[in-house]
Design a protein that fits this description.
The structure holds three protein chains of three kinds.
Chain A (H helix, E strand, L loop, with lengths): L1 H21 L27 E4 L2 E2 L16 H16 L9 H5 L11 E2 L6 E3 L10 H16 L5 H4 L61 E8 L2 E8 L5 E5 L17 E7 L2 E7 L15 E10 L2 E9 L8 E10 L18 H17 L25
Parallel strand pairs in A: 2-3
Antiparallel strand pairs in A: 1-5, 1-12, 4-12, 5-6, 6-7, 8-9, 9-10, 10-11, 11-12
Chain B lengths: L1 H27 L12 E2 L2 E2 L3 E5 L18 E2 L10 E2 L1 H4 L24 H12 L1 H4 L12 H4 L4 E5 L3 E6 L5 E5 L14 E7 L2 E7 L19 E10 L2 E9 L8 E9 L12 H4 L1 H5 L10 E3 L4 E3 L9 H7 L1
Parallel strand pairs in B: 8-9
Antiparallel strand pairs in B: 1-2, 3-6, 3-13, 4-5, 6-7, 7-8, 9-10, 10-11, 11-12, 12-13, 14-15
Chain C lengths: L1 H24 L1 E2 L2 E2 L12 E4 L2 E2 L16 H16 L9 H5 L11 E2 L6 E3 L10 H16 L5 H4 L59 E8 L2 E8 L5 E5 L17 E7 L2 E7 L15 E10 L2 E9 L8 E10 L18 H17 L25
Parallel strand pairs in C: 4-5
Antiparallel strand pairs in C: 1-2, 3-7, 3-14, 6-14, 7-8, 8-9, 10-11, 11-12, 12-13, 13-14
The chains are: A alpha+beta, B alpha+beta, C alpha+beta.
Chain lengths: 396, 322, 389
C-alpha cells in the first residue's frame, strides 16, 4: 500500500515537472501586437521556426499620391496588378544592338511578379510612408557620388541621349572626365562606368552585397529559414540569385562586439520580450551600404508570430549621420511548406561569378581595341547602367 | 529498504519538478541574466547546440603524414621525396607555410582507396594546388571539409531541423529531420537528411556536385558522392564525428574518416565573419586590372616580383570552374 | 552491519600497510627501489654522466672492462696535459686557429671507470660493418676527399686527408650532388644542404651518449606518462615524448628525426623501443633502419643505469650494446639549460655559405685563389691526439 502511494507521488512529481515545462510564462505587459499569436517550442520559447517569405509585392516607399494612407483599396490593388502585369508582358524591343534592347529581355520570361500587397508601403513611420530627409552631410555624400558616377558617363550615348534612367541630371561632354583616373569619393558600392579592377565593381557584382535589413528584391525572392534551440536561434537567408547568408544571433545578453570589430552583417544581439524576438544590430562595416547608411547603421528588429502561418517583421532603422530621424518598416511573412523545402540555401555567388571578371576583361579588350585603332574610346561606352525595369514603376 | 527507495524516487521527482520550473523560467525570463543554460537534451535527444571546432590537421591532408616543408614544394638539390623545398608561392612564409604532421583521420589501413586513374588526378590536384584548391578562391568547402576547417561553426538544434552555420565564408547547411522534397539541383554542400538512432545523430548527405575537395592535399570526389555522418556526444564538450564516404566513380570501396570535434568553451564565444571572397579578389581578378596592383615585395633577403597573366580563350573562364 | 564495516576497514588498513611496506623495503640487487607517489619506478631528475668514457675500447685494453685506478690516474694526467698545452703553429693557418680549443674553452671530466661505453661485443668495439654499409661509407669518404684533394690539408698529408691524395686539379665531383643525403661537413658550401647536420641545427638525437660540451637529460613523470628533455652540446636540445599506451609504432610511411619512442615498464625498468627514423638522420652510418631498445633503471638514490641495444642489420653485422651510468644533478641548482636555441644564433652556417660566395667572387676577379684549394671543412680541433683511443 505504502509503495503504491510513493509511486503515485513520484509519478505526479514527474507530471508536475512536465506541466511546468509546458506552461507558457506570464505575458509581459509590454506592446503586444493586436493579432498576437502564442505558439511555443517544446522548451517554452516563442516559436518562430519555419521558412518565411513575403508573398506580395510592396514598395519600400509610398507614392506621394496616397498621402498618409497605409493600405490600398481592393480596387487599387487590382488596378496595380493589371498595370504591372502588362509592363512585364510587353515586348520591349528598341533599336537592335543597343543596351536598351538587351535590357528589354527582362520581361515576364525572366521576372516573376507577386500580387500587389495590401500596404501602400513597407515604411509605416514616418506617417507619410517615405524615408525621412537626409542630413546635410548625407546629402553632400550622395551628391558627390552621383557627380562622380555621372562624370564617368558623360561621354557616352546614355548621356548624349539624356536617358532619364542612366544619366539623370547629367550633362553630355565628349571629352572623357579626368575623374576617370581618380578613385571614388568614398568606398564604392554601386556600379560605375569603369572596370579598372575588382573594387570598381558594385558590391553585387563582387558577391559582397545584400545583408541587413533585408526587404526582398525583384530578382529571385527573399526567403529566410528560422531554426531555434533552447537559448539559441539561427536564421539562414536565401535572397536574390544565390546571395544567401547566415545570421548567428547572440542570445546571451552580453554587450555588442567592441567598436573596433566591424562586420558585413553587423552584430546581432537578441532577446525575447514576451512573444516577440527583439534583435539589436550594430557594428556594421564601412563597406556595407543601405540606402546610404554604412557603419553607423543601427537596426532594432521585432519578430512576432501573428497567426498559424504568419509572422510580422518590424524593423526600426536608425543612422543619425544619414537620416534626420529613425524610420520603421513592417513586413508580413507567410510560412512556406517545410516539406516542399523551397529554400535553396547555397550562397554560391562567387563560384559562378563570370560576370565580374568578364566586365574587367571586356574593359581590357576595349582598351586594346582603342589603342590599336579598332574601337572607340572606352569612355564613350556605357558599361554600367542597368536598364532593366527602371523606366516605369507603377508603384511610384 | 523499499521504503527508502520510494522516498528517494519521490525526492527525485520533486527535484525534477523544481529543476524543470527553473529551466523554463530561466529561458523565457527577462534579459540580462548572463549565459544561457544549455540543457543536455532537446525534446529527449542529446543537444548538439553550440559552437564547435575541430582541432587537427585534417584540412591539410586527411592521411597520416610526417610534417613537410609546404603545401606546394619543388625538388631540392636531391631527387629524394624527403628533401624537397617550398615552392615559390609559399617560400616567403618560411616555417609558417609548412604542413604539420598528422596521425591522419582515415580509418582502417589509413589509405584512401582511389581507382588508379583517380589517384593520378589526386596527385595532379596536389601539384596544382594554387590554381585548383577551391579553398583559395573562397568557394564553398562542401561536406565533410566544412566540419574540420580551422574555423569555428555553430549548431542550432531544433526538433525537426538542425542548422550548421560555418564561419568560413557564408557556408551553411540545414539538416532535415522531417520529410522534405529533394533539392532542385546538385549543390556544393549537398542535401542533408538526418535521423536519430538512439543517442546518435545519423545524417545522409547526397546531391553533391563535383567541385569541392576533401582537404588541401588534392583529395576530391565526383558528383556521385554520398556520405553517412554519425554524430555522438562523447561528453558535453566533445562530439565524435564519423563519416562513411562512398563514390563509385572515384573510389573502389567506401572508406571512413573519424575525429573528435571540440566545443569552444570560452564564455563569450560567438562566430565572427570570415567573408573571404573579398580577401581573395586580388588572387581571383588581379590579373584583370588595368594597372597591376600587387606586383612586388621587398624583404631583406628576398624580393618577390609577381607577373600576372590572362589565360587564353575559354581557359579564362575554366580557371574559375575547375 | 557495523561489525562487517569495521572488518572491511581493518582489512583495507592492513593491506595499505603491507603495500606501503613493500614499496619501501623491497630489495633489488642494487638497493631500494624508489617509487613515484602513484607507484611507478621513479626515474625523475636531471641526469648526466659525470665522467668521460670512450664509446669504443682502445685495442690495447682488449677485453678489459674496467681501468685500474692507476690507469685512470695516468689517463687523467695525459688528457689534462693535452688540454693545457698551448698548441701554436704557423700563424694564419687553420691548424693555428684550431689550437685555440684548449683548456680555456674545453673542460675535462674525470676518466670514467669503464674502458668503453660498449659492453657488447665483448671487445668493446662497434661490430663489423656489412659489405653494403662499407661501400656506402667508402663512397661518402671518396666524395669528401675528392672535395679536399686540391687543398693544403691533402698536400701536407694531414690526418684529415687520411685515405686521400693531393691533386692540384679540382675534382669534377665539385659539380655533383653527394652519393646520398649529406650529413657531414664537406668542402663545399653551394647551399644549405652542403652543410653538416650540426651546422644546420639538424643534428643530435638518439642514441645520445654525450659530447665534449655536456649532455643532460631531465625526466619528468606523470601517472602513465613520461617526458624527457635533453640539453646537449651547444644548445642543441630536444624533447622526447614517450608513448606509453601499448599501441604499435607509427606507420612505416611516417619517419621522424628522433624516431618513434614506445615505452613500457618491465618490473622496475623502463624499456623504450625506438624505430621510424628518418633517412636524413645518421648515427655512425645508420639511417632509417636504426632500431634502439633502451633500458632505464634506477640503481640508487643518485644513480641511474642506461643501457641501449643498437641494431641495424643493413649497417652492422650484429647488434651492439652500450651501458652508461648517470649521476643525479641537483634539482635546485637546475643546471640544465633546455632552450634549444641553435638556429636563433646560427651565424656559422650562413657565414660558411656567404664566405664561399665571396671566395668565388674574389677568384673571378683575380683577387684570390681557386676556392677548391681552400679547406673550409676540416675541424682540426682534437683530431690529432686522443689518449683515450
Amino acid at each position: 500500500m505504502r509503495t503504491r502511494l510513493h509511486k503515485a507521488i513520484g509519478a505526479s512529481g514527474v507530471a508536475a515537472a512536465v506541466a511546468v515545462l509546458l506552461m507558457p510564462p506570464a505575458v509581459s505587459a509590454q506592446t503586444v501586437p493586436k493579432t498576437s499569436w502564442s505558439e511555443k517550442t517544446p522548451w517554452g520559447e516563442p516559436d518562430l521556426q519555419g521558412i518565411w517569405t513575403v508573398e506580395t509585392d510592396t514598395p519600400l516607399q509610398r507614392a506621394p499620391k496616397y498621402g498618409a494612407r497605409e493600405f490600398f483599396t481592393d480596387a487599387e490593388r487590382e488596378a496595380l496588378d493589371q498595370e504591372r502585369a502588362a509592363l512585364l508582358r510587353r515586348d520591349k524591343r528598341v533599336e537592335r544592338g543597343t543596351e536598351l534592347d538587351v535590357a528589354g529581355a527582362y520581361n515576364a520570361l525572366f521576372m516573376s511578379m507577386k500580387r500587389t500587397g495590401a500596404r501602400t508601403s513597407m515604411i509605416v513611420d514616418p506617417p507619410n510612408g517615405r524615408l525621412p530627409p537626409l542630413t546635410p552631410e548625407a546629402q553632400k555624400s550622395v551628391a558627390a557620388e552621383r557627380q562622380y558616377r555621372l562624370a564617368l558617363l558623360q561621354a557616352t550615348e546614355t548621356c548624349k541621349t539624356k536617358n532619364p534612367v542612366g544619366c539623370p541630371g547629367g550633362t553630355y561632354d565628349p571629352t572623357p572626365s579626368p575623374l576617370r583616373a581618380e578613385p571614388p569619393p568614398r568606398y564604392n558600392t554601386g556600379r560605375i562606368n569603369r572596370h579598372d579592377g575588382p573594387e570598381d565593381g558594385s558590391l553585387s557584382d563582387r558577391c559582397l552585397s545584400l545583408g541587413l535589413p533585408e526587404f526582398g528584391t525583384a530578382y529571385g525572392g527573399s526567403f529566410r529559414r528560422i531554426v531555434q534551440t533552447p537559448g539559441g536561434i539561427s536564421i539562414f537567408y536565401d535572397v536574390g540569385q544565390g546571395q544567401g547568408w547566415q545570421r548567428n544571433i547572440v542570445m546571451d545578453a552580453r554587450p555588442h562586439l567592441p567598436a573596433s570589430i566591424r562586420q558585413w552583417y553587423g552584430d546581432s544581439r537578441g532577446r525575447y520580450e514576451g512573444n516577440a524576438l527583439v534583435i539589436d544590430v550594430t557594428n556594421f562595416s564601412q563597406k556595407t551600404d543601405f540606402q546610404g547608411a554604412r557603419e553607423n547603421l543601427h537596426l532594432i528588429e521585432r519578430w512576432t508570430r501573428t497567426g498559424p502561418d504568419t509572422l510580422e517583421y518590424a524593423v526600426t532603422v536608425d543612422d543619425p549621420t544619414v537620416w534626420t530621424r529613425p524610420w520603421t518598416a513592417k513586413l508580413e511573412f507567410m510560412r512556406q511548406s517545410n516539406e516542399q523545402n523551397r529554400i535553396y540555401y547555397e550562397p554560391r555567388c562567387v563560384e559562378g561569378n563570370y560576370g565580374h571578371p568578364a566586365l574587367m576583361l571586356g574593359a581590357r579588350i576595349e582598351e586594346l581595341a582603342y589603342v590599336e585603332g579598332r574601337g572607340p574610346h572606352p569612355a564613350t561606352k556605357d558599361n554600367a547602367t542597368d536598364f532593366v525595369g527602371v523606366e516605369e514603376d507603377p508603384f511610384q | 529498504m523499499r521504503d527508502r527507495f520510494a522516498l528517494s524516487m519521490l525526492t527525485v521527482a520533486v527535484a525534477a519538478a523544481s529543476v524543470g520550473a527553473f529551466i523554463s523560467a530561466s529561458i523565457t525570463g527577462s534579459s540580462g541574466q548572463g549565459p544561457i543554460a544549455r540543457p543536455a537534451t532537446v525534446a529527449g535527444k542529446p543537444n548538439f547546440s553550440g559552437i564547435w571546432q575541430a582541432n587537427n590537421e585534417a584540412n591539410w591532408d586527411l592521411q597520416a603524414h610526417a610534417a613537410r616543408p609546404a603545401a606546394v614544394t619543388q625538388e631540392g638539390v636531391y631527387p629524394y621525396d624527403y628533401a624537397r623545398v617550398p615552392a615559390a608561392p609559399v617560400l616567403a612564409l618560411g616555417a609558417a607555410g609548412a604542413v604539420p604532421g598528422s596521425l591522419g583521420v582515415v580509418q582502417g589501413d589509413g589509405q584512401i582507396p582511389y581507382k588508379p586513374e583517380a589517384l593520378a588526378k589526386k596527385k595532379e590536384n596536389a601539384d596544382h594546388w594554387i590554381d585548383r584548391d577551391p579553398e583559395l578562391k573562397c568557394y564553398l568547402p562542401g561536406i565533410p571539409r566544412a566540419m574540420y576547417m580551422p574555423h569555428p561553426f555553430q549548431i542550432t538544434q531544433s526538433t525537426n531541423k538542425i542548422h550548421m552555420a560555418y564561419s568560413f565564408s557564408n557556408t551553411a547547411r540545414t539538416i532535415h529531420l522531417d520529410k522534405v522534397e529533394g533539392p532542385p539541383d546538385d549543390a556544393w554542400m549537398g542535401h542533408s537528411v538526418g535521423r536519430w538512432e538512439g543517442d546518435m545523430l545519423v545524417v545522409d548527405v547526397s546531391h553533391f556536385n563535383d567541385r569541392a575537395w576533401f582537404d588541401r592535399a588534392g583529395n576530391y570526389h565526383s558528383d556521385a558522392l554520398k556520405l553517412t555522418e554519425r554524430f555522438t556526444l562523447r561528453s558535453p564538450d566533445v562530439i565524435l564525428y564519423d563519416v562513411t564516404i562512398e563514390d563509385p566513380n572515384v573510389f573502389t570501396r567506401p572508406w571512413r574518416i573519424a575525429m573528435p570535434i571540440y566545443r569552444r568553451v570560452e564564455p563569450n564565444m560567438q562566430l565572427l565573419e570570415f567573408r573571404c571572397n573579398e580577401f581573395a579578389e586580388e588572387f581571383m581578378y588581379g590579373h584583370l586590372r588595368k594597372q597591376p596592383l600587387v606586383k612586388r615585395w621587398e624583404g631583406e633577403t628576398m624580393t618577390i616580383d609577381i607577373t600576372r597573366k590572362i589565360p587564353p580563350g575559354d581557359q579564362f573562364y575554366q580557371w574559375y570552374s575547375r | 552491519m557495523r561489525d562487517r564495516f569495521s572488518l572491511l576497514v581493518a582489512t583495507l588498513a592492513m593491506a595499505t600497510v603491507v603495500v606501503g611496506a613493500m614499496s619501501v623495503t623491497q630489495l633489488s640487487a642494487q638497493g631500494p627501489v624508489l617509487k613515484t607517489p602513484w607507484g611507478e619506478p621513479d626515474l625523475q631528475g636531471i641526469w648526466t654522466d659525470e665522467s668521460d668514457t670512450p664509446l669504443q675500447r682502445s685495442p690495447r685494453f682488449a677485453n678489459q672492462e674496467f681501468y685500474t685506478e692507476a690507469q685512470r690516474a695516468e689517463l687523467d694526467r695525459d688528457r689534462a696535459a693535452l688540454l693545457r698545452r698551448d698548441r701554436r703553429v704557423e700563424r694564419g693557418t687553420e691548424l693555428d686557429v684550431a689550437g685555440a680549443y684548449n683548456a680555456v674553452f674545453t673542460s675535462q671530466k674525470r676518466t670514467g671507470a669503464r674502458t668503453s661505453l660498449i659492453i657488447d661485443p665483448p671487445n668493446g668495439r662497434i661490430p663489423a660493418m656489412t659489405p653494403e654499409a662499407q661501400q656506402r661509407a667508402a663512397a661518402d669518404r671518396d666524395f669528401r676527399l675528392a672535395l679536399l684533394q686540391s687543398t693544403d690539408t691533402c698536400k701536407n698529408k694531414s690526418v684529415a686527408c687520411a685515405g686521400g691524395k693531393y691533386d692540384p686539379t679540382p675534382s669534377p665531383k665539385r659539380a655533383e650532388p653527394p652519393p646520398r643525403y649529406n650529413t657531414v661537413r664537406i668542402n663545399r658550401h653551394d647551399g644549405p644542404e652542403d652543410g653538416a647536420l650540426p651546422d644546420r641545427c639538424l643534428t643530435l638525437g638518439l642514441p645520445e651518449f654525450g659530447a665534449a660540451t655536456g649532455s643532460f637529460r631531465r625526466i619528468v613523470q606523470t601517472p602513465g606518462g613520461i617526458s624527457i628533455f635533453y640539453d646537449v652540446g651547444q644548445g642543441q636540445g630536444w624533447q622526447r615524448n614517450i608513448v606509453m599506451d601499448g599501441r604499435p609504432h607509427l606507420p612505416a610511411s611516417v619517419r621522424q628525426w628522433y624516431g618513434d619512442s614506445r615505452g613500457r615498464w618491465e618490473g622496475d625498468t623502463l624499456v623504450i623501443d625506438v624505430t621510424n627514423f628518418s633517412p636524413k638522420t645518421d648515427y655512425q652510418g645508420s639511417r632509417e633502419n636504426l632500431h634502439l631498445i633502451e633500458r632505464w633503471t634506477r640503481t640508487g638514490p643518485n644513480a641511474l643505469e642506461y643501457v641501449v641495444t643498437i641494431e641495424d642489420l643493413t649497417v652492422w653485422t650484429r647488434p651492439w650494446t652500450v651501458k652508461q651510468d648517470f649521476t643525479r644533478q641537483s634539482d635546485q641548482d637546475n643546471r640544465l639549460y633546455n632552450e634549444p636555441r641553435c638556429i636563433e644564433g646560427n651565424y656559422g652556417h650562413p657565414g660558411l655559405i656567404r664566405g664561399a660566395r665571396m671566395e668565388e667572387l674574389a677568384y673571378a676577379e683575380g683577387r684570390g685563389p681557386h676556392p677548391a684549394t681552400k679547406d673550409n671543412a676540416t675541424d682540426f680541433v682534437g683530431v690529432e691526439d686522443d689518449p683515450l683511443q
